[in-house]
Specification:
single chain; 206 residues; alpha/beta; Rossmann fold; four-stranded mixed sheet; globular; disordered N terminus
């Protein structure tokens, strides 16, 4: 069991959690929200023990740690949350990352695994808006993952199997966005976040 970190981070802003099975479109939604300056958001870069893919950049896409480094940080209680998503493949949110963003007076937005998202919500129930992005179907997820051409067939099948389990957690989130039409999903996400952080819609960029 992980120890509670409620008292280890000074509360300064809101936490916006976006979770979904891989290929659901949550990353596209998060990038859109980050482009809206009036929302005053900054992205929480997760740490991972997996290797870089393609053109991924250290400190922008992820903090890439060796398996040994990741486990050391777990032992040192340096994570707000962490999860072994696949065997020896860890993802987590460093406490220092949230502190860095809050120190700038911004709200933190997460593109995060379902388990990690729910852990953050449990630890900060009042400060967190947890949103689940639901895909049209599992079959559509598989098509999207194949189009990426970044993973083997075996890894894609692992993600699909995991997606079925993740979809069952949707009712535990505050809100569910059904990403059947991307433009509709983007607008719904913007309205939810603006309302939660108390953003002045009149300051939205035209």
């Amino acid at each position: 069991m992980m120890k509670s970190t409620k008292n280890s981070i000074k509360k300064r802003g809101k936490l916006l959690v976006f979770s979904a099975p891989s290929g659901s479109g949550k990353t596209t939604i998060v990038k859109y929200l980050l482009g809206l300056e009036y929302l005053n958001l900054e992205f929480s870069v997760s740490a991972t023990s997996r290797v870089k893919r393609g053109n991924e950049i250290e400190g922008k896409d992820y903090y890439f740690l060796s398996l040994k480094e990741f486990k050391n940080k777990i032992r040192n209680n340096e994570f707000l949350e962490w999860e072994e998503v696949y065997r020896d493949c860890f993802y987590g949110t460093l406490k220092s990352e949230v502190e860095r963003i809050w120190a700038k007076g911004k709200h933190v937005i997460f593109d995060i695994d379902v388990v990690g998202g729910l852990r953050i919500k449990k630890k900060y129930p009042k400060e967190t808006l947890a949103v689940f992005v639901k895909p049209p179907s599992v079959d559509e997820l598989k098509i999207r993952l194949k189009k990426r051409k970044t993973e083997s067939e075996d890894k894609i099948n692992m993600r699909i199997a995991k997606a079925s389990i993740e979809l069952a957690t949707a009712p535990q989130f505050d809100k569910i966005i059904r990403n059947y039409d991307l433009e509709v999903a983007l607008k719904e996400a913007e309205n939810l976040v603006a309302d939660f952080v108390g953003a002045d819609i009149s300051k939205r960029e035209k």
